[in-house]
User: Which sequence fits this backbone?
């Protein structure tokens, strides 16, 4: 149920399992909001509403307890994200070659880390304990990057990266390569199969998908009243 994914009518027990301060203080969050949202007609995807709240706000709410700081990657709509109160960075590469360029830009600032937990702005049900799970695996396996899978489906845009991947990332982009999954595989990133709620990695690509989800939410709230 969508209401359960919002946390309406139940307790999120994972929220009660607080990350240790030591772990949290090693992780910064990167919100990817620099895409062109062509399938949404070029609107600011992060500003679209679900249940009366912006998609960006919903992701930030779930990311914030998992990290010590948050940085936003945005280009065309960068000024619209100032109101969230987090630093906003435009890509240093002028051709805006996708999410990797946003990650590169923020890693170059060297303001957080040493670990960076990444999420796009169109996944409003981001798992609330994902950063800790990825971090635990990375430390145990001595890996520089880890990304989740769910029932065999890879989720490279929800990866955890160490700041030391920056030289490899810059070289990858300089070679005119743009694929996030391609970069992670190039690095030999670990894959972590995650047992999560169905829909936690749901991403909204069109206004029609968003409208349908809003109608479903409204109906569930109405039926439960």
Assistant:
């Amino acid at each position: 149920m969508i209401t359960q994914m919002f946390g309406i009518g139940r307790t999120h027990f994972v929220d009660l399992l607080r990350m240790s301060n030591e772990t949290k203080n090693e992780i910064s969050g990167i919100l990817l909001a620099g895409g062109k949202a062509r399938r949404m007609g070029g609107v600011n995807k992060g500003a679209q509403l679900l249940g009366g709240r912006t998609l960006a706000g919903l992701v930030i709410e779930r990311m914030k307890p998992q990290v010590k700081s948050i940085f936003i990657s945005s280009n065309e709509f960068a000024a619209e994200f100032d109101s969230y109160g987090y630093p906003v960075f435009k890509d240093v590469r002028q051709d805006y070659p996708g999410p990797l360029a946003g990650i590169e830009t923020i890693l170059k600032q060297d303001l957080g880390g040493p670990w960076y937990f990444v999420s796009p702005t169109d996944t409003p049900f981001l798992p609330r304990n994902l950063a800790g799970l990825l971090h635990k695996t990375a430390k145990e396996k001595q890996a520089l990057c880890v990304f989740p899978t769910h029932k065999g489906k890879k989720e490279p845009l929800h990866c955890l990266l160490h700041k030391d991947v920056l030289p490899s990332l810059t070289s990858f982009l300089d070679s005119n390569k743009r694929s996030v999954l391609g970069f992670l595989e190039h690095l030999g990133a670990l894959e972590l199969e995650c047992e999560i709620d169905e829909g936690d990695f749901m991403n909204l690509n069109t206004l029609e998908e968003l409208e349908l989800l809003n109608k479903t939410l409204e109906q569930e709230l109405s039926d439960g009243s």
About this structure: The CA atoms of residues 66 and 189 lie 21 Å apart.
